[in-house]
Design brief:
With 288 residues, this protein is α/β, with parallel strands linked by helices. The chain folds into two domains: 66 residues, no CATH class; 202 residues, Rossmann fold (3-Layer(aba) Sandwich). The chain has eleven helices and eight strands. Strands 1-2-4-3-5-6-7-8 form an eight-stranded mixed β-sheet, with helices on both faces. The longest helix has 15 residues. The protein starts with 15 loop residues before the first helix and ends with a helix.
Length: 288
């Protein structure tokens, strides 16, 4: 049976006005378009919270905590009362309540969850952020709310979980869903969607490396995976139009103790509420 093709229209689209602005900047100068692209790349969209997340939002104990490493504050959500805690990490332009279906099932199985709105996301302050700030937030949240038995991350949150484990987050297992992988691939895809030449992607990488004094490839998920010993469940959909399935497969290939679970027809977000994915997640958590 032939696999159904990925529908590119389901991928997140960049507004036409931004694409036009990028091309105007590119016409003026490479430096200008690089700065413009960097600003767009680091600015998440704050979506309105959908009704399906209201219950978790209402029942959570919420607190604003300070993250010294980045001099920013984030809003945290404690959901449930169990001492068996699981950390949930949303993706780009997501929220601390986005993994509510997984959280609800975890509560029914004797766990509680801690999640957060990353900098510039949800109820947290700020306009711009980058993955290193997700990681710094995770490590500070562990200090204040941990220890955690498990960490679960979606999309950029999956990359952040792997990097946090590499950087010292102590969990027994990790689960990543629809995780991105190679940072350069992400920059290439972004500049392509902006309608810019591929060389701008390299300028963008150099801009971030100079600004943050880091090597961008050091944050690639497969590199973190190579240093992780704990069991990791990698969940990815064959029809994910935003993060291609090759990312999940490549991460799994670089894990010492990885399990790969591939789905079909769920895309990048519907996968978070799928019962088979939740069932596999619970099985992975409970198995010794």
């Amino acid at each position: 049976m032939a696999k159904k093709a990925i529908n590119p229209t389901k991928s997140l689209k960049i507004p036409q006005i931004i694409i036009i602005s990028a091309k105007i900047c590119a016409f003026i100068s490479t430096k200008l378009v690089t700065k413009f692209a960097a600003r767009i790349f680091t600015t998440p969209i704050k979506h309105k919270v959908p009704k399906r997340e209201f219950e978790m939002d209402r029942k959570s104990s919420q607190k604003t905590i300070y993250i010294p490493a980045i001099d920013k504050s984030v809003v945290t959500y404690e959901y449930g009362k169990s001492n068996r805690k699981i950390l949930l990490v949303h993706g780009w332009s997501g929220r601390g309540t986005q993994l509510f279906k997984i959280a609800d099932e975890l509560l029914l199985n004797g766990f509680s969850t801690v999640s957060f709105d990353a900098p510039a996301h949800g109820k947290s302050e700020g306009k711009t952020t980058i993955m290193s700030e997700f990681i710094a937030s995770i490590l500070e949240i562990e200090k204040q709310f941990g220890p955690f038995e498990i960490a679960i991350g979606h999309s950029l949150g999956g990359m952040s979980v792997l990097n946090s484990v590499k950087d010292g987050l102590k969990v027994n297992k990790a689960i990543i869903i629809g995780s991105g992988d190679i940072v350069q691939d992400i920059l290439d895809e972004f500049t392509f969607k902006l309608g810019l030449k591929k060389e701008i992607s390299n300028h963008l990488r150099d801009f971030f490396e100079e600004k943050y004094k880091v090597k961008m490839d050091d944050f690639s998920a497969y590199r973190a995976a190579q240093k992780i010993k704990i069991p990791v469940l990698v969940v990815h959909d064959h029809d994910d139009p935003e993060v291609l399935v090759k990312a999940g497969i490549h991460i799994h290939q670089n894990l010492e103790n990885g399990t790969l679970f591939l789905t079909e027809g769920l895309g990048h977000r519907k996968i978070l509420g799928n019962q088979n994915v939740i069932k596999k997640t619970l099985e992975f958590i409970k198995n010794n």
